[in-house]
Structure formats: C-alpha cells, structure tokens
Amino acid sequence: MRLLSCFLLLSISILCFGQDKYSSKDKTAIRSYEKASYFLDLNRFTEAKVELNYAVKQDDQFIEAYLLLADVYRVTFDLINAKSTYRKAFAIKPDFAPERYFYLAECEIKTGDYKEAITHLNSYLSKAKPQEAKRLALTNKYLKDCEFSILAIKNPVSFKPENLGPSINTSDQEYLAALTTDENTLIFTRQINNNEDFYISKKKNANWEKANYLSTNINTPNYNEGAQCISPDGQFLFFTGCNRPDGLGRCDIYVSQREGDGWSKPINLGNPINTKGWESQPSISADGRTLYYVSDREDGFGSYDIWKSELTDEGKWGNPINLGSKINTPYDEQSPFIHPDNETLYFSSNGWIGLGNKDIFISRLDKDGNWSDAQNLGYPINTYGEESGLTINATGTKAFFSSNNFNGFGGFDIYSFDLPSALKPKTVNYVKGKVYDAESKQPLDAVVDIVDLKTENSLYVSYANKVDGTFMATLPNDKLYSLNVSKKGYLFYSESFSVEHHKPGEPVVLDVPLHKIAIGNKVILRNIFFDSNKYNIKTESKVELEKLIEFLTENPKVVIEIRGFTDDIGDNQSNLLLSQNRSKSVYNYLLTAGINENRIKYKGFGESNPIADNLTPEGRASNRRTEFVITEIRETIK
What we know:
This protein is of the alpha+beta class.
C-alpha cells in the first residue's frame, strides 16, 4: 500500500508541475489537501479521505483534491465513490488530467457501467502518450471487455444458485468447496477472525450434516490453511500453507492422507513444485498423477500462471510445465479445477475477455494434448465482480462456488447451481469397493490398480484406506476396465467391469476379499480373453498376464496349476479340448516370459465345475474362465 500511496502523490505532483499555485485559492482547502498528502505517505487512508472531503467542501472547484480523493477511493476499493468523484473532477475541467479517464473507466468496468467505460476509455486514448504502452494495451483489452459484456448481458446463460444451507454456511466466511466423487464429502475453507481453517461435512439422506473442524493435524492456530482440493477418491487433501516453518517460499503446496476418520500430518511437496516464490491453489487429476496449480515462478506468461506437474514412475513429481498460451496470459490466471474426466479445465482469469475483474473460463483438452481457446462461462455466472473457485461434480451436472452477493447467512457462502449443457464436462462415473482379508474380514491397505484394457493405461493406482479398506476411482463411461488388487502375502484379486450401463452417480460397487498365499487357494483370472471357440489369447489379456508374471516373480516358491473351463454349449469332448488348449496358451505365455517350467502346470476341465448356472448369458460367461490354484510352496525350485 505504501507504493500505491507514493504513486498517487507522484501523480498529483506531476499534474501540478510548472503551476504557480493550485487551482484553488482557498487556503483552508489547500491546507487540508496537503495534510491528506502527508497522511497518504504514512498509509493513513482514512484520515486522508477526511481531509480531502473537507477540502472539496471548502472549495467545490478544487479539481486536484477531487482527483486525489478519487484515487484514494479507488485503491481502497470503494469503487462507487471513486467513480462519482472522478466524474465531479472532470465536470469541472474535462482536460485537466486526461490519464485519469483510464482510472475512471476501470472503476466503471468493475461496477458494470460498460457504456460509460467505453466513452472514457476513448477519451483516454485520444490524449494518451505513445510511451504509455502497457496502459494502452490494457485500454484496448478493456474496450473488448466492454463490448463482450454488453452482448453477454443481452444473452444470459441459465443460472439459479442455491445456498447449501446452515449446516455449511454461517455468519463467517465460507468458500473454496472441494467435493469427493461420490458427492458425500465436502471440505471447505472457513475464515473466523482472519484465520482460515478447513471444515468437513458428510451427506446423509441427501442432506449435509453440520460441518466439523477437519483436523488438528492440518489446521493450525498460527497459520492460514486454504485453497485446497481433495482427490476424487477422498484419500488425499492437497492444500496451500503460507509462511510455515517448513515452507520453501511465501506459500507452498502440502498434502495430507486420510486415515479412517482422521488425517495424517501434512507433508510439503518440496521441489520442484514449491519454490522461493508463491505456489497455491492445487487441483489433482482423477488418476492422481497430474497436479495443476498456480505459481508466480519465472518463465511464465504473467505474474500468476497455471502450471502442472506429473508424477513419475518413481513416485516423484516431475518438473513443472506451463499450460501455455491457450490458458495463460500476460495477466493473472488462478483457481484451476481439472474435472475427473481429465479433459476439462475451469479457471479464473483477468487476462481473457470478460465482464471485469476475474471471470471463470473453460478449456478442453483435445486428442493431441492441446488446450482449446479459453471460453467465458457467460453472464450471470460471471459478473463485473470477481468470480473464482469453481468446482464441478463428477457427473458434470452441478457447479459449486462461493459468493457474498445473494443475501446468504453472512459474508461469503457456498452455493451450487445446475451447469448449462454447453459448459458441462464429459460425464464420468465411478467404482467403489472395500478390500479385506477373506478369512478374518479385517480391512487391508492393498494396492488397487485399474487399467483401461484397450490402451493398457493405468487410470487409477492407489492404496485402499488402511483403516477401513475402502477405495474409490472416477472413470469414463465408455471403456472396459480390469481391476487388480494386490498385497504382499496374499493372492491378487482380478475383476473385469464397465461403468457404461450404470447411471451417472450410481457406481459399480465391488467386494474384494483377498486370500492369503496358501496351498489350495486360487484366483479367477477374469481379464484373460479368447474369441469364441478359439484359444489364441486376445491382446486385452496382456495386462492380466503381466500381473500374473509379477506375482510369480515376487513369490518364487509358489507352484501353480493353470486351469481352463468352458460353459455347456457344445459337446463335452470339444469343450474339454478347448479348455485344455486355452490353459496351455497361458502356460506357454508364462514360459516365454521366463517363468520356470517346474513352477507351472496346466489342465483343462471343460464344462465341469461351473461357478454359475448355464441358463443365462451372464452365467455362461462366468463359467468360461481361466484360473490358477496354488499346488505347492517349495523351499527351492529346480
């Protein structure tokens, strides 16, 4: 603020340079004006306003006092009074300080007076000097903002915000909502007496329960915690912490892991994500492998840009990558939110054409990995005020944001609204499950790996929660997936599924019992596929076969028998031969991969030993299976 006050005083002194006296001849008014200048040099804005108001009361033609008073109103964000005071100054002498038309127009844009702003921007342009290049560039942007805004107001988008109610919102400030994929957990920031902490609310019977203090492991009495995101599965909370003892810069990004109903001590993500500068506002992708965030580091397009860092195979965050000129501008981009579809990014910016201050924009990732041109969400989602911090649910139907414009419970409250169709991301759904010991029923913190069977890309890799064994993953609707769950000392679990026929918000629910490595225990390999009546292994089976090879490599004492089964369509002898050939195909694949032949056998069982009836397509599909059973656990393998 001191720099601002010095700038204001310098501006006025330049106006007066070469003049023998002020425009006013009233000594009392001049004395008050000079007192105000003194107060401004000390950052005492309230006292400066009192003196300047007194000066113009003594002499209502004192143009310097009006201009300085308008400047003070502007830098203290009293834009309505700033606007009216500039106008009073120009009514006295329109050409006295033509550069102030720029500031008047800025105040008009930020209060929605777009037509007046166009007039005053053009007034500034008619008198501007060539050396004012940055301000001239901003003036041309402001003119485009005004033209866009006038048209946007004439063509509003659908927008009916609903307050989330007293369980979430209070007379204090609530903002920056973060939502889990199943929409049953909401974590947000609440500011009480200038201290920011996280609060959490659970949904019960479609209603939000009263929000509670999140965790003493994360919240602190001496530092602010804010600008958070929660991983779609609800297992990890990424947030911003400023000026902490373990910080690398002014603000750093931290992560905490859920432990049952509690949270672990947060860890600073360190280099290369955090620097000596300012890093904030994280947003994690659905697969947990890409972190989007805001930084003022060097080599960006503006003071604040959106960057991303990707998790390497070694589990470390890679060097940050700037999202480029389709997202970032020479101005400020903030509040990124990557939707669980991993293709749709929402963010706020004052650099793209908008309605004033910061607006919310959308950009989509194409098949080649390029972001589309930023699109303004439109009026009245965006207004002349500052809009930021938008979160979208997994189904893409509702948006969550905070505002103090709707007569809520006090200060900023959290609201939701139905997202217009043109602004929706791709619809995704999710799978949720629980991993536990098959015998004791105790939860297990096993590794959960979900793979796109066509591309062989892993879309979700994480540990089931170590306290309750739960996991949850957000997935696109149009793919076939393999689920593999593994833990040391246990057989892995295999499953094949699709979310295609599940309605948005109605997940696939999986029960995952793990059996200990013991003779007689078996695994059904549900992701090994063959064409009808053939025994050539289909390419989609590779993911499952690699998991089996990994299991045998990590457990070198285990001996298995691969078993093939069919349904009851066709004659028994043909089915027996088909099942024998299919199990042999898997056997040969393992041999080719280097597995010792003394550790594997194969056998076909035909249509015997069904695990379901053969009366339905689903039952017959279950009976057509490949599995393996542990036959020995040897001390040595020869």
